[in-house]
Specification:
392 residues; mainly beta; Neuraminidase; Immunoglobulin-like; seven-stranded antiparallel sheet; five-stranded mixed sheet; 0% helix; elongated; 6-blade_b-propeller_TolB-like; DUF4394 domain-containing protein
C-alpha cells in the first residue's frame, strides 16, 4: 500500500482506545524502513534500516506474522523483518494481465486472498491473487482516468481506496472493482500515500503525504471520507508506506524472535494459556499456523539466542545455552488438519540435556516449537517464533 499517516474511522465506532498497534513501513522519500505505533506516531517513529527498493505496496498477512511487500521496479515479492526492517526477496514475481506500476497491496481476512492495485498510465486497476505464488488475476477498473494510490480491506472484506486526482475515499467492489465515492479527505495528497486497517480497533489509518516532506497522520471517516488529523508529520520529512498489526494478546509470556514463513506461506506461531503461577502447574503451549499433518515438538531453554537456518533448517532457532526437548512419550505431536498442536507442560519437570528441572517463582524459560516442513517439495524443518515466560 502507498502511505502517509491517517486513519479512517468506522461509522458508529466509538473513540479509539488508548491501546496501540504496531506500524512497520518504508519511507520512500529517504529510502529507509521504520517502525512506529498508532498512538504517538511521531514520537514512536524509529528508523530501522536502509531500503533501496521502491516498495509501494506492503501489508501483513491476515495473522499478522509476516510482512509482505512488492518491489515496484521488478514486481518481485519480498518480506520485511518487522524487527530489523531488512527486506528479503522471495523470488516470485507478481504476474497479471496488463499489470504495470504498483500502487497498493492488502490482505483479506481469509488468510489466502490478496488484492493489488496498479496504474497503467491511464487507469488504476484491481487484481486478486496469492502473494506466496505471485499469480494475480484482473478484477476490474477502480479509477477510470485516474490513480487509486492505495487500497485497504477490513475484517469483513470491505475494500476501500484513496484516489489521488480528487483526494477522495472510495469503496470498491471486490467482485468487479466498481468504485463508489464516499467523500473527499480534506487534504491535498501528493505522490505516494498509504493506509491500513488496525485489526485491533477496525479503524483505517493513513499517512497522507502532502508534498515537500510534509504530511498528516490521520483517521478518515468511512461514512464521509473526511480525515481526522491526529498528528503533523513534517518533522519526519517522510513519504511513507505502512502496514499495521495488533500487538498480540498472548495471555501468558512475551513473544520474541521473528519466525520465517513455512510452506503454507505464513510463519508458525507459539502461544501459552493457563497460568504462569508455579503453584498452579497449569501451562499449555500451542504451536499454530503450521503445515497440515506435520510432526513437531517444543523446545525450551533459560537463554534466548538466534541462529539462522541451523543444520539446514528453513527456520530460525531462537534459543541458546542448554536446550531441552519435549520428545518423551506423548510429547511429539502432529499438526493434523488444523495445522496446530498443543502440549500441557509439567512445571516440575522442564527438560534439559542433563535431566528435568522445576520452574520456581521468578525463573524465566523460553519456549519454541520445531516442526517438519518442506521447501519446493524437498523435506526440511522450521521453527515458530519464541515465547519468554517469567513464572510467578
Amino acid at each position: 500500500m502507498k502511505i502517509a499517516p491517517c486513519s479512517l474511522a468506522l461509522a458508529g465506532l466509538m473513540a479509539a482506545a488508548s491501546a496501540q498497534s504496531e506500524i512497520v513501513g518504508v519511507d520512500v522519500r529517504n529510502n529507509e524502513s521504520f517502525t512506529s505505533s498508532t498512538v504517538n506516531f511521531v514520537n514512536n517513529y524509529t528508523v530501522l534500516a536502509p531500503e533501496s527498493r521502491n516498495i509501494y505496496g506492503l501489508d501483513f498477512d491476515a495473522a499478522g506474522n509476516t510482512l509482505y511487500g512488492v518491489d515496484d521496479a521488478t514486481l518481485e515479492v519480498l518480506t520485511i523483518d518487522p524487527v530489523t526492517g531488512i527486506s528479503t526477496a522471495l523470488g516470485p514475481f507478481i504476474t497479471g494481465p496488463g499489470l504495470t506500476g504498483l500502487t497498493g497491496l492488502t490482505a483479506a481476512a481469509d488468510g489466502v486472498t490478496w488484492y493489488l492495485s496498479d496504474y497503467d498510465g491511464v487507469d488504476s486497476n484491481l487484481f486478486r491473487g496469492d502473494i506466496t505464488t505471485g499469480v494475480f488475476s484482473f478484477v476490474g477498473v477502480i479509477a477510470p482516468g485516474g490513480i487509486m494510490i492505495d487500497i485497504a480491506i477490513d475484517a469483513n472484506d470491505n475494500l476501500y481506496g484513496l484516489r489521488l486526482s480528487d483526494d477522495t475515499l472510495y469503496s470498491l467492489d471486490t467482485a468487479t472493482g466498481a468504485p463508489t465515492a464516499i467523500g473527499p479527505i480534506g487534504l491535498n495528497a501528493n505522490f505516494a500515500q498509504g493506509m491500513d486497517f488496525d485489526p485491533a480497533t477496525g479503524e483505517l489509518y493513513a499517512a497522507i503525504y502532502t508534498g515537500t516532506g510534509t504530511g498528516k497522520f490521520c483517521t478518515l471517516d468511512l461514512t464521509t471520507g473526511l480525515a481526522n488529523q491526529l498528528e503533523d508529520t513534517f518533522v519526519l520529512n517522510a513519504e511513507m508506506e505502512m502496514a499495521i498489526r495488533a500487538v498480540p494478546d498472548t495471555g501468558i509470556g512475551t513473544p520474541y524472535c521473528t519466525a520465517n514463513p513455512n510452506s503454507t506461506g505464513v510463519a508458525g506461531s507459539i502461544s501459552a494459556a493457563g497460568s504462569d503461577a508455579v503453584i498452579d502447574n497449569d501451562l499449555t503451549l500451542t504451536a499454530e499456523q503450521l503445515p497440515n499433518n506435520s510432526f513437531g515438538f517444543f523446545i525450551v531453554s533459560p537463554l534466548q539466542g538466534f541462529a539462522a537456518n541451523p543444520g539446514g533448517s528453513s527456520g530460525n532457532l531462537c534459543l541458546a545455552g542448554s536446550i531441552g526437548r519435549y520428545v518423551g512419550p506423548g510429547q511429539i505431536k502432529n499438526s493434523g488438519a488444523a495445522g496446530a498442536f498443543s502440549l500441557m507442560i509439567n512445571l516440575t519437570a522442564i527438560p534439559t540435556p542433563t535431566g528435568p528441572v522445576a520452574a520456581t517463582a521468578g525463573s524465566v524459560f523460553n519456549f519454541q516449537s520445531w516442526y517438519r516442513d518442506s521447501s519446493g517439495g524437498v523435506p526440511t524443518s522450521n521453527f515458530t517464533n519464541g515465547l519468554e515466560v517469567t513464572f510467578q
